[in-house]
Write a structure and sequence with these properties.
Chain A: Its main location: membrane. Chain A: Belongs to the binding-protein-dependent transport system permease family. LivHM subfamily. Chain A: It comes from Bradyrhizobium pachyrhizi. Chain A: One of its GO terms (cellular component) is plasma membrane. The structure holds two protein chains of two kinds. Chain A is mostly helical. Chain A has helices at about 1-30, 40-55, 60-80, 90-115, 140-160, 165-175, 175-180, 185-210, 220-235, 240-265, 270-295, and strands at about 130-135, 135-140. Chain A has a single domain, classed as Orthogonal Bundle (ABC transporter involved in vitamin B12 uptake, BtuC), CATH 1.10.3470. In chain A, helix 3 (about 60-80) packs antiparallel against helix 8 and helix 9 (about 220-235) crosses helix 11. Chain A is globular, with a radius of gyration of 20 Å. Chain B has two domains: about 1-140 and about 275-340, Rossmann fold (3-Layer(aba) Sandwich), CATH 3.40.50; about 145-270 and about 355-380, Response regulator (Rossmann fold). Chain B is built from 13 helices and 14 strands. Chain B is globular and about 60 Å long. In chain B, about 55% of the residues are buried. Classes of the chains: A mainly alpha, B alpha/beta. The interface of A and B includes residues 122, 273 and 278 of A.
């Protein structure tokens, strides 16, 4: 029983982390109609900034906050210098250009930080396990990821649903030309949205960094999952991204945790241990395929444009 | 017409190449030079280059030409690069291969063309058994040997039960099978993770913790080893269940694992502090040539590969067509290995010692690996009976 609770928490934590990444992607994709493959590079930059600033300042929290600011600025600069020239273009052009950016960022990181990767050690107060309910201990840092990600999700909800900026963002998502015609500075709005998306990716990267390593290309594998999530959740929908990310996180973790044992009941030991990892990594893609068949617009599609 | 002219020219060039190659020794080197595990490939290249420096950049008076190819850690790419080296570059030797799955995909190309292949790391069980070949030599080990030594050490420590975790590919399966073959206690659980994409091991660690096993054994080379150790320490399991490793802590991962690796034992056939003269020279000159870096076992094996090639070419006085004589010479191990003396088994896999290594703070205050004891002497892999070569 405790095992199930703990694995559920593992899934939730993984899902929430994916949400941070997917939220930025779905905002940019849904509102700006812009395919940004370089989103994973911003995730990587967040992690590299955090590793650098934490080493400089000696404080994990301060370094993380500085890294967040740096990724936000980087996102805004990137939009201003390169991406805004691509809005009118075909999706294929955007894919090509942002793929180029992935290569650019990977080599820039190799030049600046070297090929070996960096470490982002946790402060001592985050490396202890915490007792959440009697008998169940959970790593403090993973618990912190859950809390921070939930807070960010709540904040995003409030900003998008309750503020004027949020209203403009929603308006932009449903009809871009119209809000432009109403005298709203759509260019500035897009820059802000892209910056916000970049900061969210950076946050995901810097929070993931102590668990994984900070290394070149770390954003590429995880970006695929982020795309799966926005397809499942419905493109442009933050709520959809949130639900889908938690689904994906839990399904992936539960699959890895319990599928091998289930398979061992039907198959021989060796066959089961070979098949289980392959099968469990397929589960989320199966989910995506089923959703695409039943609800091609995703679970929570954004308002029609 | 013009096209035909160019085509003819290109073909003439292609035909001319082997004639030019005759007065140099051509070596193809396949390893991973891009992506997160490129640091391993770089270390192998650094060590191979250092070995060539020590040989005066010449083998038996002939200049050496090394063509480095990146396998991107993918079996299909590794196979293509091997085909390119064999068919269009017409190399005399192919060296390298970190990954067992890449080597297995590339093996047939090299063997069919009778090009000598020297594995400087990968040691899949098939290579030691039914796929052994007169043209293939290893300067590393068979995958099972190192974890077998770990299993033996765990028996010496009186460990009663273990939970095994490893990646789901050729080497991962060999490694876990290796521990199981020598460990006398109970194997409580066995988990395979998706390789190389899975980086979060929370589900597996949770299971290991709840299995009430007395110990955990893992095999995670490269960056995955850093991630595993971080997560193991963060989950607080380090204080509860001791960890035993194979190929998870080395000089490349240690600067990233930091204190999380302190006191975590592993087994290895080469450690940087082995007290023979060749090794002292190798380690000292490596650190001089590449400031800030330290050689790993991957490098040591690549260094040995260069010297093995040298011994073969010198023995036939540079006549690279005498393949049988070269094979016979290499079987004698007529060079001084940085791991100390070893012999080849019938399957061209080393029969060698395995040492217990531990992570300690060295005189410079840096974390480093240290030889603690010899776990097994003159260990031969357990697949050599299946190799048809006698």
């Amino acid at each position: 029983m405790y095992l199930v609770v703990e694995q559920l928490l593992n899934g939730l934590q993984f899902g929430l982390l994916l949400f941070l990444l997917a939220a930025g992607l779905t905002l940019v994709f849904g509102i700006m109609d812009f395919v940004n493959l370089a989103h994973g590079s911003l995730y990587m930059m967040g992690a590299y900034f955090a590793a650098t600033f934490v080493a400089w300042t000696g404080s994990f929290v301060l370094g993380a906050l500085m890294a967040l600011g740096a990724t936000l600025l980087l996102g805004i600069a990137l939009e201003y210098v390169a991406l805004r020239h691509l809005y009118g273009r075909d999706h294929l052009d955007q894919v090509l250009a942002t793929f180029g950016l992935i290569l650019f960022f990977n080599d820039a990181v190799r030049l600046i930080w070297g090929p070996a990767g960096l470490a982002l050690p946790l402060p001592a107060w985050l490396t202890v396990p915490v007792q959440i309910i009697p008998g169940v201990y959970y790593p403090a840092y993973r618990l912190m990821i859950i809390v921070v990600a939930l807070a960010v999700a709540a904040m995003l909800y409030l900003v998008v649903m309750r503020t004027r900026i949020g209203m403009l963002i929603r308006a932009g998502a449903s009809n871009r030309e119209m809000i432009g015609a109403l005298g709203i500075n759509i260019k500035l709005l897009f820059t802000l949205v892209f910056g916000l998306g970049a900061a969210l990716a950076g946050l995901a990267g810097l929070m993931q960094a102590p668990i994984l390593t900070v290394q070149i290309g770390m954003g590429e594998n995880i970006l695929i999952l982020a795309f799966v999530i926005i397809v499942i959740g419905g493109i442009g929908s933050i709520r959809g991204a949130f639900m889908a990310a938690i689904f994906v996180g839990i399904i992936d973790t539960m699959g890895r945790a319990f599928l091998p044992d289930l398979l061992r009941k039907v198959l021989s030991g060796a066959a089961a241990s070979t098949a289980a990892p392959a099968l469990s990594s397929m589960l989320i893609y199966l989910l995506m395929a089923i959703i695409l068949v039943l609800r091609p617009e995703g679970l929570f599609p954004a308002a029609r444009r | 017409m013009k096209k035909a002219f160019w085509l003819a020219g290109a073909m003439a060039l292609a035909l001319a190449q082997p004639a030019m190659a005759a007065d140099s020794v051509k070596i193809g080197f396949v390893s991973t030079f891009s992506g997160p595990t490129a640091v391993i490939g770089n270390d192998m290249r650094n060590s191979f280059e250092l070995a060539l420096d020590h040989l005066g950049r010449k083998i038996d008076g002939k200049p050496v030409e090394v063509i480095y190819e990146d396998d991107q850690q993918k079996p299909d790419v590794g196979k293509q690069k091997t085909e390119k080296l064999v068919q269009s570059d017409k190399v005399d030797f192919i060296v390298g291969y970190i990954w067992s799955n890449v080597l297995l995909a590339s093996l047939k190309t090299a063997v069919d063309s009778k090009t000598f292949l020297i594995s400087a790391n990968a040691g899949p069980s098939q290579l030691a058994g039914e796929l052994c070949s007169p043209y293939v030599f290893s300067t590393s080990w068979q995958n099972d040997q190192t974890p077998q030594a770990v299993g033996t050490y765990m028996n010496q420590k009186g460990v009663k039960s273990v939970f095994l975790i490893g990646p789901n590919y050729a080497a991962g399966k060999d490694m876990l099978a290796g521990v199981k073959s020598t460990f006398k206690g109970q194997v409580v659980g066995e988990e395979y993770t998706v390789w190389p994409s899975q980086l979060d091991f929370s589900a597996e660690l949770t299971k290991a913790k709840n299995s009430k096993a007395e110990s955990i054994f893992v095999f995670y080379p490269g960056a995955a080893g850093v991630q595993f150790l971080n997560q193991y320490a963060q989950a607080g399991i380090k204080q509860q269940i001791p960890l035993y490793t194979a190929f998870t802590i080395d000089e490349l991962s240690l600067p990233l694992q930091k204190d999380n690796a302190l006191g975590v034992p592993g087994a290895q056939q080469w450690v940087n502090d082995l007290p023979n003269e060749e090794n002292k020279k190798f380690v000292a000159d490596y650190r001089k040539k590449y400031p800030g870096l330290r050689p790993t076992f991957y490098g040591a094996q690549s260094y040995d590969a260069a010297n093995l090639i040298n011994s073969a070419v010198v023995a036939v006085k540079g006549d690279l067509t005498k393949k049988d004589a070269m094979k016979a010479e290499m079987e004698k191990v007529n060079f001084k290995s940085v791991r100390g003396p070893f012999k080849y088994g019938n399957n061209h896999i080393p029969i060698q010692n395995f040492y217990l290594q531990d992570v300690v703070k060295d005189a410079e205050g840096q974390l480093s690996l240290k030889t603690v004891a010899t776990i097994v002497k003159d260990d031969q892999d357990r697949f050599h009976d299946k190799c048809p070569m006698k």
